[in-house]
Amino acid sequence: MNERPKPPIAVALHYNVNGGGAPRVVAKGGGQIAEKIIETAREHNVPLQEDAALAGALSKLDIGREIPKELYVAVAHVLAFAWTIAGKSPPPASSSRQEETTSQTSRLPALSYSRFS
Length: 117
Fold this sequence. Notes:
4 helices; alpha+beta
């Protein structure tokens, strides 16, 4: 039973509360590309969350594509994690679409999800 370890997978998302729509995939890759995504995220203090199932599902999406409804709940948990790490709280949903603001609480940096075996 010599299973080779699977290479890492990383998927980065970006979400702008005021921009409307769902979070979008902004980068993805496996192996060395995944390592570079993770390294870049760390350099820019982007929260990282390791989730094999979510990374696998997100890695099937095209870059630039919004996440599908089936992944909303899983990604919402990661967004909440990112806001907590950043020491921020998301703006209320009702005001986020009514007011156009450039405050830091209205924008969430790209997130990276990774899978390692």
